[in-house]
Design brief:
With about 500 residues, the chain is α/β, with parallel strands linked by helices. It folds into 3 domains: about 1-30, no CATH class; about 45-360, TIM Barrel (Alpha-Beta Barrel); about 365-504, Galactose-binding domain-like (Jelly Rolls), CATH 2.60.120.260. It is built from 11 helices and 24 strands. It has helices at about 15-20, 45-55, 65-70, 90-100, 140-150, 170-185, 220, 225-235, 275-280, 310-320, 340-360; strands at about 1-10, 25-30, 55-60, 105-110, 155-160, 195-200, 205, 215, 240-245, 250, 265, 285, 290-295, 325-330, 370, 395-400, 405-420, 420-425, 435-440, 445-450, 465, 480-490, 495-500, 500-504. Strand 7 and strand 8 (about 215) form a beta hairpin. Helix 4 packs parallel to helix 11, helix 6 runs parallel beside helix 8 (about 225-235) and helix 10 packs across helix 11 (about 340-360).
């Protein structure tokens, strides 16, 4: 019950006199929250940020002019005819392979810093219509969006703000007549896009329409980001603007890891890469992290002779990103045929089998769950412990206001082998948990702490704890025979909430 005192009156002029004349009355009104929901701990995510976070693990496909020049950053002076796929590019093959790895979507690079566009844009002649081989027949955004829908996967596009080909770059009309229009053109390939990706590389030397000069810009205002977001969101309301767009942050490295402590809250003016990895507990904006990493040994684009990382290494990346309140966008570059190499396809399938073996069977629903405290139910909502294992992301367990520590215990009829613990906060109400620990007992009496060499601090959207404390060899050994597993939340910013607990 929350009591609020209202001061009601006709005018605010001469309030002492009016009060004396009886024009004002003190009225006590009681406002009730029938569902007794916890108050939000701000900042909180927008609906599009929540939907984006639920994608969790998705692919990056660097494909374009650089695939054929053996470069990573083209200067912008490349002839369009150099882009010459030897077969019809096959985005459906890309996405099918990544779906087998457990990914839920993908981002296709359709314009890199060289300015070459993989769709028939009206903004520049430097596009696939002037290419050779199978290039002129392949509108990559169209093919990619169509394939994603058929496979029930999320999709989006990478479009470089920096354009080393354009003579207009650095001038005002580049933003209005080229960049913003390109983003709008791409948005029209589907209003169901989940992310538009804007690289942080902005300005430097380039061809620039034959100027062959160096141009510097201030990305904080040059790209007119508020207008960019508005124009894209008008078409694609759930499309998160990554990087320059200011709705999700770079995690601070390209090696596939986030901080063990990782807040989704952040101050956008912070430039430290170390802080990008951890977020900021008192950050004033909800700006969750995304980790971009390479599945191959060379660059972002395909290069002859490159190898694919082991499935074990890719699984480690997953634990150190998705398992640490970040998302993971894993780069899988197509080759000159326009398809993923066979070695990449095979490795992704191996990764998917590993994910299923290690994280595919949830043991928590078969356990009896208890908690030291359960929040008082409301008229239409309860906060019982079973909400953590019911598979419904909109139900959650919580404690009462003022209680910022609690224990949750899962008990099985017989000792059960456990290797991983997964927890998810109900982040619609903000990120709360600051510190926790995990223990187990084999006999029901003697408790031992697990994962002692891991920072068990934040949870956020998702946290996966390898109970042996090792991400690099998380599945090694025989696991732990647990009669009970106990989670102790030692501190939280407000009453803790958990929408999911899973044990594998």
């Amino acid at each position: 019950m929350k009591k609020v005192v209202f001061l009601l009156g006709i005018s605010v002029i001469c309030c002492a006199q009016l009060y004396a004349q009886g024009e004002f009355q003190l009225v006590e009104q009681t406002l009730t929250d029938a569902d007794n929901q916890p108050l939000a701990v701000h900042p909180v995510p927008s609906e599009r940020q929540l939907l984006w976070n639920e994608t969790e693990f998705y692919a990056f496909f660097h494909y374009g002019m650089n695939t054929f020049t053996n470069k990573e950053w083209g200067k912008g002076d490349e002839s369009e005819s150099i882009y010459a796929p030897t077969q019809m590019p096959n985005p459906k093959q890309w996405l099918t392979a990544c779906k087998k790895a457990g990914m839920k979507g993908g981002i296709a690079v359709v314009k890199h810093h060289d300015g070459f566009c993989l769709w028939p844009t009206a903004t520049t002649d430097h596009n696939m219509t002037r290419s050779s081989g199978y290039g002129p027949q392949a509108n990559i955004p169209e093919l990619f969006a169509d394939a994603a829908r058929k496979l029930d996967m999320k999709y989006g596009f990478y479009v470089s703000p920096w354009d080393r080909n354009s003579a207009y770059y650095g001038k005002d009309n580049y933003v209005t007549d080229v960049f913003l229009k390109q983003c709008e053109e791409l948005a029209l390939y589907g209003d169901d896009q989940f992310e538009m990706w804007f690289d942080g590389a902005n300005g430097g030397d380039g061809y620039y329409g034959g100027q062959n000069t160096t141009i510097s810009i201030d990305a904080s205002y040059y790209y007119d980001v508020p207008n960019l977001r508005d124009r894209v969101h008008r078409i694609c309301k759930n499309c998160v603007m990554w990087g320059v767009g200011g709705e999700a942050r770079w995690i601070g490295n390209e090696q596939g890891y986030a901080g063990e402590t990782n807040w989704a809250t952040f101050n956008p003016t912070t430039e430290s890469n170390a802080i990008r990895q951890t977020g900021e507990e008192n950050g004033w904006q909800w700006l969750p992290g995304e980790s971009d990493a390479k599945a191959t040994s060379a660059g972002w684009f395909w290069h002859a002779g490159e190898t694919v990382l082991t499935a074990e290494r890719l699984f480690q990346m997953y634990l150190e990103t998705v398992g640490r309140n970040s998302t993971l966008i894993l780069n899988c570059p197509p080759d000159k045929t326009g398809s993923l190499p066979a070695a990449t396809v095979s490795r992704l399938e191996e990764l998917g089998e590993m994910m299923t073996t290690r994280l595919g069977t949830d043991l928590a629903p078969s356990a009896t769950i208890t908690a030291s405290e359960v929040r008082t139910s409301g008229a239409n909502r309860d906060y019982k412990v079973g909400n953590m294992t019911d598979g419904d992301k909109e139900t959650y367990w919580a404690t009462n206001d003022g209680t910022t520590s609690a224990t949750i215990t899962l008990t099985w009829d017989e000792p059960t082998t456990v290797r991983y613990l997964q927890m998810m906060e109900y982040v619609r109400l903000g990120q709360r948990i600051q510190d926790f620990k995990v223990e187990y007992t084999e006999d029901g009496e003697n408790w031992k702490e697990l994962a002692k060499n891991i920072q068990t601090t934040t949870v956020g959207y998702k946290r996966i704890i390898p109970l042996n404390g090792k991400t690099a060899s998380s599945y090694s050994g025989s696991g732990y025979k647990a009669k009970s597993l106990r989670i102790t939340i030692d501190s939280a910013r407000a009453c803790p909430t958990l929408s999911n607990i899973s044990v594998f």
